[in-house]
Amino acid sequence: MGIASINPTTGEVMKTFDPLTDKELATKLDKAAAAFVIHRETSFAYRAERMIKAAEILEAEKEQFGRMMSLEMGKPIQSAIDETVKSAWACRYYAEHAERFLADETVETSANRSYIRYQPLGPILAIMPWNYPFWQVIRFVAPALMAGNVGLLKHASNVPQSALAVEDVFLRAGFAEGVFQTLLIGAAKVEGILADPRIAAATLTGSEGAGVQVGISAAKAIKKVVLELGGSDPYIVMKSANFAEAVATAVKARVANNGQSCIAAKRFIVEESIADRFEEEFVARMEALKVGDPLDRTTELGPLASTSAVDDLHRDVQKSVDAGARLLTGGKPIPGKGSFYPPTVLTDIPRDSPAYSEEFFGPVATIFRVKDVEEAIHIANDTRFGLGASVWTQDEAERDHLIQELEAGMVFVNKMVASDPRVPFGGVKQSGFGRELGPFGIREFTNVKTVWIEK
Questions:
Q1: Domain Aldehyde dehydrogenase: where (predicted)?
Q2: Catalytic annotation present for 262
Q3: Rounded distance between C-alpha atoms, residue 47 and residue 37, angstroms
Q4: Which domains does the chain have, with CATH numbers?
């Protein structure tokens, strides 16, 4: 079949694509290398003008792009439209701030003059997942292109229409041919591309397994790589929290993007004195969610991206129940067409079950009860992941203690974890390394050059 768009709501094959031949792939790499020689010498003003145009295209065509994403990977239509608008925001943000972020930085030394200069590296390979078909790409390509790099996108094979649409946005915005290209290829081609001398570095958002493979390939070629991998984000609710806001946000934090988000809250860690109330209200709110066609604007939970995603999720839920976890609601795939899984809640989680240690990529929540803040921190950190954490408390000392002790790349207090162009995004431990977004994100793929002028 090649590379296919399959509607996860109906199971219908919408469109198929032939993967690039080796010759076609080589031509694209040649184009990227040639484009970099020219693009790196363009001014920030030149790049910004085109990046703003890309933002304008995204905003003007948000309905069409949103529908494409909903059909291709199942996200609710309003969420898909919002993703398009957010992508435009990132384009504008880097258009406006890139020159300042990459300006020479004076360093006081004994030299007559010493400073740091940020310069582009070259063609960057981006290996991106399907769960945010536009946003994941834009948050790489906007800073990369504004820094003077060029980009090559190996998108997930189930969102080829989205991958080609993003490339088209940047061409229509006025970026030269070869500055940003989509590669319709399978995963088996990635290692060879990373080894190619025309590729300067890589970034991957995806699974641990994919991260390991890309990390090994990049290390063999001695090339920079940024890895944003899985997360099993804790959502900690202490008795001092604004309870109504905490529980309402908890449901949104778990089922955003149909529960298929690395920064979705997955483990709900609740102080014992409010745990019964939280559990009751959380379960009721999960059960009340409207599951259905993502093109229906009243739908709150659409399908998972594929039937295999349903199978994987259900297998881990069943293993956890078999190990002793207690099922409070859901827990069985929804029969009929499409890749639907119901809102599901587990509690009394055994430490040796998948629910304790694995990332559940779908609308499955786990609830843990703790006696105090120290136990909350212990449970939150008792995972190989360290991406984000959401903390709900109105006690200042408790808040500061949680911020200090949680092993995470991001801590959000009285708010669900979210990505924002203005602040760095990334994790620690098995959640990866490096940062996207903010000033750190644009500097990841630059040569941080020390300049020392003695006389």
A1: 3-451
A2: yes
A3: 14
A4: 3-230+429-453 (3.40.605.10), 233-382+388-413 (3.40.309.10)
